[in-house]
Each structure stands twice: as C-alpha cells, then as structure tokens.
Amino acid sequence: MKTRIPELRKQRKLSQEELGLAVGVTRQTITSLEVGKYTASLVLAYKIARFFGLTIEEVFDFSEVEE
Amino acid sequence: MHTFRQKVRTRIIVLTVLAMAVALIYTGFMLYRSELPILNSFTKGFHQGIFFGLELVILGFLAQNIKGSRSEAALKKMQIEENDERFSLIIQKTASMTCLVMFAALGVATVIAGFLNAAVFFALLGALLFMVILFYAMWIYFAKRN
To answer: Domain HTH cro/C1-type spans what residues (chain A) (predicted)?
Structure first.
C-alpha cells in the first residue's frame, strides 16, 4: 500500500524514529510502511493520520487494495 | 506507562526467582549426583547444556528488563518494542509456519520410526498427539476470546 508518510515526515522534519516514538511503533515498522511492505492496522493508520492532522484516506492510498 | 512499569517490576521478580530456582535445582543435581542413575557423557552434557542455556536465557531477559526499568526513555523504548504490531505479526506468522512444518516433520518421522523402532514410534506418536490436542485446545481458546 502506498502512503504519504515519507512526504509528510519530511515536511515536518521528523525522523522515522521520532514518528515511531510518537505513534508507538518501532523505526523498522515506519520503514516497512514507507516502502509499502507492511500494511498498517486500523488503529496504527488512525494514530498516524491523527498525528499529521489528516484523515486516514489522506495518508494512505487504498486505490491498489484488492477487493 | 504505569501499568507497563508494574509489569516490568513483576517480571524482574519472577525472573530472579526463576534464575535462582534453576541454579538451585542444578546444584542439587550436582550434590546428589551419586544417587542418580549413571548416564553416558552425551546425555550428561545435554542436561548441563539445557540448564546452562535456560539460566543464560533467564539472565538475559532479566538484564534486558533491569536495563529497561532504569529510565523513563528506556522503559518507553522497551514498551514500543514489545507492543510493536509488525513485530507481533512476524512472531505470529513465524509461530504458525513453524507449527505447520513441525506437524509435517513429526508425521513423517512417526511413519518412518514405525518401520524401525517401536519405542521411538510410540514416543513420536505421543508427541504428535499431544501437539494435535494442544493445537485444537488453543484454537478453541482463541476462537472464544476473539
């Protein structure tokens, strides 16, 4: 799944470690989310979106998710 | 965070007791060695390895928890590492795949042992049955919980 996390993180000059600490996951999880290897749970997606002050759809791209 | 701190404190106590218990049991075995059945060197070495390995694992976990409980930042890091959802998923997938492979390997080994040795066959069959029962018991438990 594609995400806007790298872009949003760079805008706010945050490291992966800092974002991870803010939403309660490790740096490795943020890396996996950014490269699209891992799909976040609903709770994590909500936490990340809320951290950036956006909605889940604005951070995560669901267009490629299979029905 | 307060709950996690309590959890770490309890863990430190339990691990300390466990480390001491394992050391005491091993010392007990060493003291009463003459009263135990005579074992070959390989079995003796295996038993020693199990005890030392277990002691090392317990001490490792103990050190990790003591280190984590020293500062607020270390505790937070430890909490994140333990509750990370990707890590949990990796553990779940690893465990389920390992379980599947173990079932298959144990099944094949039981069939082969049936042609070679009755004692090994029944030991493996017992292990296989135990795993099947445990698997379904866990299945029912988690199905009811979730």
So the answer is: 5-59
